[in-house]
Structures are given as structure tokens and as C-alpha cells.
Amino acid sequence: MKIRDPNLNSETLKKDREGIALPPLETITVNSSKNPFLFWFVWTATLIIIALIGYFVGRFIGENGNESVDALYIILSTETFWTGVIIGFFAQIIDGALGMAYGISATTFLLSTGSSPAVASASVHIAAVFTTGLSGIAHVKFGNVSRSLFIRLLLPGIIGAFCGVLFVTKLDADLIKPIISIYLLIMGIFIIKKSIFKKRSIKIKDSRISKLALTGGFMDSAGGGGWGPIVTSTLVGAGQDPRLTIGSVNFAEFFLTLATAGFFSIFITTAPFSTIAGLVIGGLFAAPFAALLCKYLPVKFLMIVVGCVVSILSMINLFHFFN
Predict the structure, then answer these.
(1) Separation of CA 252 from chain center
(2) 39-to-26, 43, 134 alpha-carbon distances in Å
(3) From the centroid of its chain, how far is CA 80?
(4) pTM score
(5) Does 26 map to a domain?
(6) How far is CA 310 from CA 79, 104, 109, 253, 284, in A?
(7) What is the pLDDT of residues 32-55, one digit of tens each?
């Protein structure tokens, strides 16, 4: 969930983030105008989330019957569940404090525990369906979504996500893992560079937004993350309105994440439910801590820490692969 307490959006925090060209934190900004087109997308997202919750609960009870309680206890006792909780907790803290990098952080941590790139990315995207959905709905409610920008991002992002899923599932896992680790290493360095050097604003043409969404969707599904750092940072850095950019990218991210999770369900027969449940629960508990970090710790320091952690873990993964 990326909608934050507006009290966190102080002038000092604004200047801190502007100094490193980082998008400002999302705040509750009410717009009285209602867009019927976005209204239907909101109801679609709401019904999808309710249906998914009902599906997972019904499937779990259907598979375990009277032993559902015992099966739940077994899941809660597994190492994979608690690993997911820890990873989800720290990834959500990072995302809550910076407004991005949940997928990159969670995927990097999962790869370091031995997960394959496809399973890691699938777990992260299935877990993120719920948080991105709630985030996107809130952004529409408070008038933070531009219809035109949302439309330009939506379809290309989904197409890119599908191509990314094909890439990461159809190639040999042993071949893909170093490629994804190199990508995550580059993203880690990108985050560090962004925290040190302020990027000059360069105007981006509307025709290039679709290409940006296509690239962001591909890298997000193939690498397990990158939609926010690639799309949001580029658009805001190019002079787009920060509030509408953040809201539109977040709302589009729900449908992108949903499509990615659906694509993965086609190509991956066994869903890692223990890891997914751990990611969701860990993320829920992390929300208040993320707000505190965001309020008291320097943004530049947090970005450097995140970039270093992602880069180091990626280098460790590469070291293990080549030795």
C-alpha cells in the first residue's frame, strides 16, 4: 500500500527528495471531479480483488476439507513461509520508504535463497496484486489518476509483461538466473547513482510513453521488478506532473501485476503458496515501520542502502553461479 499519511509530506521531506530527483511521496489529494471511465476500472479492480480472495480461500478449504486448520498450521510452520514473511517485511519497508523497488528487493532476496527466477517473479507478482490494487483504487478515489496517461501505460505495459513472462519461463532457469542477477545489479547501481547525482529533466514525447511502458512491463515481469523505478522515475524526471504520474502508474501497475500473475499461472503449474502468504503477511506488518523510516531517515541514505543491498546480493548470486 503506497498511500501514506499526509503528515509525512513535510517541506523538508519534499526538498530532500527533490534534491535527488525522486518523485514526492503520495499524499491524499482530493479531486471532486469523477471520471466515469476510471469509475468502471475501479469497480473492476475491486471485484477482481474480492474474487481472488474468495478463490484462494475456497480452493484452500476445498483441497483440505476438515483438515484445513491443520493444513494452515503446517504452512505457518514451514521455513518457506517465514522466509517469505521476512522478505516481504523488508521489501515493503523499502517500498514504503522510497515509493518503489518492492519487486526488485523481494526478487533479489528470493533469488539469494535459491528460488528460480520464474518462481521468484511469480511469487512477488501474485503477492503484489492485493497491495497494488488497493493503492490504485485509492489513487483514483483521491483524483490522482490521469485517464490519458493511464490508457497509454496500460496495454503496452501488459504486452511487455507477457513477453517478459515468456522470456523468464521458456528459457533454462540456469541460464536465466545470471541474466536476471545482472539486471538486478544494474538496477541496484542505478538506485545508488540516482541518490548521488540529480538527473536533469528531459521532456519525453507522448509517443514514447507507450514504448517506456512496454520496456517497464517486460523488465518488471522478467526481472521481478522495475515498473516503478523505470516508468515513474523517467516520467517525473521528464517533467510530468508528479501526483498524476504516481497515481496513474500505480493504478496501471495493478492491472499489469494481475496480468503478470495470470500469465505465470499458465506456465507455472505449482504455485508457491507458502512464500506468497509470507510475502503478503510480512508486507502488512511492515507498513507502519515504513512510515517511520520515511519520516525520520534521510531519503538519500535509504536509497544508497537499498542500492548496495540489491547490488551485493546480485553479485553473490552471480558468484555462486560461476563457481
Answers:
(1) 12
(2) 20, 6, 14
(3) 21
(4) 0.72
(5) no
(6) 23, 8, 8, 22, 22
(7) 345 676 778 888 888 888 888 888
Q: Would residue 120 count as lying in a domain?
A: yes
How many residues would you count in the chain?
323
| Structural domain contains residue 310 | yes
Report the C-alpha gap between 142 and 139 in whole angstroms: 5
Q: What is the DSSP letter of 261?
A: H
**pLDDT computed for residue 174 by the predictor:** 67
Q: Is 24 exposed, middle or buried (0-12, 13-18, 19+ CB in 10 A)?
A: middle
* Number of structural domains the chain divides into: 1
State which residues form the domain around 258: 69-322
Which residues of the chain are modeled with pLDDT < 50? 1-8, 27-33
pLDDT at position 28, please?
A: 43
Residue 15 lies in a domain: no
